[in-house]
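Q: My labmate handed me this sequence with no annotations at all. I'd like to see what the chain might look like in three dimensions before we decide whether it's worth expressing. Could you predict it?
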Amino acid sequence: MLKKKPLILVICLMLLAGITQAETQVKAENSSVTIPTNNLNVRQGPGLSYPILGQAQKGDQFNALSREGDWIKINFQGENGYVASWLVSDMTTSQRGEKAASSNSQAIITTDGLRVRKGPGTSYGVLGTIQKGTAYKVMSTEGSWVKIQTPYGDGWVANEFVQYSGSQKKNSSSSSQTGKITANSLNVRNRPSLNSDVIGKLNSGETVAVISQNDSWTEISFSGNAGWISSQYIAVQSSQSESKPKQSASGKTGTVTATSLTVRNKGSLNGKPIGSVTKGQTFPILEQADNWAKIEYQTGSYGWVASWFIDITAEKNSGSSQQSVNGSSAIILHNGSNIRRKASSQSSVIHRANKGDSFEIISLNDDWYEVRLPNGGTGFVAGWIVKVEGSAPAVTKPGAEQHLENKTIVLDPGHGGRDNGTTGARGTREKDITIRTAQLLADKLRSAGANVILTRSGDTYLPLPSRVGISHYHNADAFISIHYDSTPDRTARGATTYYYHPFQQELAANIHSNVIAMTNLRDRGYRAGDYHVIRENKRNAVLIELGYLSNPAEEALISSAQYQQSATAGIYQGLARYFKN
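A: Here is what I predict for the chain of 581 residues:
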């Protein structure tokens, strides 16, 4: 019996060790949440509309059973409950850390709209949001948080939403890739952060060797060393793509007219950016849909570009620069507007038109529309004194771009994520149309050389203080918050622009007058308004309501591509006029 006791003891210890090991492993495979405040509501389902199951207290910890959108499922007092992920500290175990996060590794984001915070916890303010698939350099880790370099500066993200790689994501054939710079006086930095040191500058048209690239930053060879530039100001090309354009199935080719034009994966502003092309590049037009054109922007790579920034020419008339303007009309904005014999302000006047007169557009010649006159003849009218109806692109006054170049403009598409904003009479959601307007305006401003930052680039929720924080962080020269209005009175219509501080009034006046001129909406004036994003903003900031979604007729108008072009051209022109003064 005495001999058996040590044997039994050994077996017991082995079983105990096995149980302990199994328990540790189970915990290691789970994540947990810590409650950072008292009386946090635990709900019966994943949403604010579900009944409250009970209240958790500060410091309570729960195993996270699963995730449903922005909600985490937990076991609360023996029942399944849900807590909002943005209100808790999310703790993860080393399961996701099989590859340790070191200062030499890259954090690849695994979810869209991930919040970048000022510190390692959900109690810290939000600097901005980053998107799935982007990669950022890891600075350090603390608990379940990782510090990374982002376009908003160094910030913290939850460890569970990243994967680690040993090095920067490389292009498949970096040795054969070069990039053409699309902005003047572009800063080259020693690391991918706006807070890093500037080691030199590049000018538009210069060609550089590309080492690696992600959605936000591009690593290049600069003076024998590696440097970093913003990805939005370089058009990356493979050396083999310099060959002569292929035959177009549509019989048309397109020449880029914008300084830098975004290529998207589908013909919509909701399409994901997959590349960019630069002014003067020519491509065969493979397909056209609405106001978008499909091109082969690199050998074997296809995408869609906005056709109003493409000079489309039929190949059989290769000497012509006529754009596709079929079915478009030019509406005169002012009484006594001149229509001239040639596309020049020095040419003789052959017809005078008044506000509201409509003329068929025959072609676009630089910044002038060739139009059909009542007597059957043709003449030319300046593109910046008319409103366009149809597929023809809106024209802004020549020279406007010189006043926008190098200006930092923050665009704030209202609402997003769980906040839909208002919903129109026909079902249009405000959050969807504000991002559409902002992305179109961003493309126009970037083509003029402006530095544009969007507070959100997808359908994500961002608190109002964070939107203002982005304006302050980037020292914005202008902050534009874009909204659409609603009221129980379905006959209400028109545009209104708001400012709060007296120094913001001049910007509001310039933007408002130009939007009204370009869209011909009812003028509801510009006035003082007590809105957080302009009241708490120390920068030049305005909030603009671009029409009423609650009015069925106006909802149909403001949802159209033509209106979106006109409205964004008005904001563009208003900004240019403000910076010119």
